[in-house]
Amino acid sequence: MTILRLAQKTDLQALLTLYTYLGDNPIPQDRDKLARCWQTLLSDERTSIILAQTADQVVSTCTLTVILNLTHDLRPYGFIENVVTLPAYRKQGLAGQCLAEAVRIAQAQNCYKVVLTTGSKRPETLNFYRNAGFNDSDKTAFVRWL
Fold it and tell me: At what angle do helices 123-131 and 94-108 cross, to 10 degrees?
């Protein structure tokens, strides 16, 4: 059985392990900076780190950040990042459940839209996001790496 929940203080190591599957993303070595960042994320009411957990481990996640906004009648928008599932648990609907929960939270916070970006060009990944209700035809995303 899998449950969805928000990340808690004790989830840091499991989350960092999941993030290593996002590509070139090693676990940070500066433990003090990592601890401060983790505490800030956990206390930020506009950030939700959604987890899918089996009986014994965290297996999938995504992060929703709600951004205040001066347009659209002052309604905020959500931004989803860091969508990842452990390889052994992929294609079981877990990331889709995490995304659905992120959208539910965004709706509860009166967001007028949710934006999701991916670095993947794989058709199955793009179709996964389309099937989760996201489209790639309304907007164009540009990235400038810093």
Answer: 40
Residue 44 to residue 65: CA distance in whole angstroms: 9
Give the integer Cα–Cα distance in Å for 36 and 52: 24
User: The dihedral of CA 139, 143, 144, 146: what is its sign?
Assistant: positive
The Cα–Cα gap between 110 and 34 comes to 31
Task: State how far the Cα of 67 lies from the Cα of 109, in Å rounded to an integer.
Answer: 10
Task: Give the contacts of 143 (CB within 8 A, at least 6 positions apart).
Answer: 117
Widest CA span in the chain: 44
Helices (H), the chain: 12-19, 31-43, 94-108, 123-131
Q: What digits encode the pLDDT tens for the residues 81-136?
A: 999 999 999 999 999 999 999 999 999 999 999 999 998 899 999 999 999 999 99
DSSP state of 73: G
